[in-house]
Amino acid sequence: MTEILTKTGGAVAPVPAADSPELISDQCAVKIAPADPFFSGRKHFPELDGLRGIAILLVLATHYQMAIPAHTGLERALKNVLAHGWAGVDLFFVLSGFLITGILYDSKGQSNYFRNFYGRRTLRIFPLYYGLLAVILIGLIAAGAARHWNPSLPQFRNLWSMQPWLWTYTFNIACAFGHGSAHLGQLWSLSVEEQFYLVWPLVICFFPRRLLVPTCVAMIVAALALRIALFFYAPHVDAYFLTPARMDSLAFGALIAMLIRGRYSLRVPKIANWALLAAGILLAGRFSLSLTRWITHRGTTAGAVSRLSELWDSTLIFTVVAVFFAALLVKAISPGLGRAGKTIATVCRSRSLRTAGKYSYGWYVFHFPIWTWSFGLASSLPLLHGFRESVAFAPLLIAGNFVVSFAAAYGSYHLYEKHFLKLKKYFPERAAGAVLRSSE
Q1: Interhelix angle for 46-64 vs 393-412, to 10°?
Q2: What is the reported pTM?
Q3: Which of 78, 89, 264, 274 has its CA 20 to 30 A from that of 327?
């Protein structure tokens, strides 16, 4: 160490010599440990709640378009725009893959790895899911015993026949073979996620870290290949609902979770810029073509062009959507790198989106049965025949479902689910993994 006299005179400050081990160590540290664009000491990412809010609003939109008539070009255009909200499910998948992989990756090798993960997931998912199924089952039994519901009605038979699939989280398989439910159709995606939760912790636990990124890439390629194979050789099977055919969205989220924890984390935002641009252009082009057909009332095209369009809509589009949302996720959690990231992060931090994201699970579970039952009732009551033809019918029905289903989700969370979530303290999350969390 050497000493240098300050300009103010008298005060002597110790300064490392040029060849001091301390200075050499500091210089090396700067080179090998650049600033982290993602974590930087943060323990909570509010942007993730905002992204979840976007996802649930997209899902709501795709169901609400059912109430809008298609008499004019404007109405058909609006229906088409809202119908594309199906992509909200893929955003949920990307977020699930990202968050779950982060938890598992950080707790890999720690004690109670499986116990803590499955304990926390069970407390978050099962109470609401099985609570809803129990209420429906009791209602079916009571209605049948009181003879208020004719067992010969299709709705009654359908709900009864779907019970084994629903209770075992295999409902997506029934949907893939055309045996879904008119009132609980939204639950298929929860089956996909639960199947992912059963398998993915085993992969993270037993695979070496160096093989996890290649595993995600292989999952992405395999999912796309399976969708293409089913398109050509098993068209009667709807690949949209099968976990192996939809695992690319989950794998993209998992891939991002691991890459931002690796040595190439600084490159991830740059790659995300190009991925967001490329995927956005492809989706915008397909959306424009679809919108034009809806407005002109031409739903199909002829020959090879039609077949190519079907192939895109059944296979490639899901991969492109997953790329888009994975890139959007990266931009949302790295706002310091570029104006686009700051804008996306600001939107995702908005109070309205974060609130929607906080209650998105209950909202997702409740909105569809409330929607189908209210829509069916409003469409069948003779008293409302005149009102159904008015322009106010669709907006009022949509607004009513929006408020009622959100109120159900809000009440369920605070009066029911929260009591189970308090038990998470008995299944502590990993210390290192506390850096990437949302309200989930």
Answers
A1: 140
A2: 0.86
A3: 78
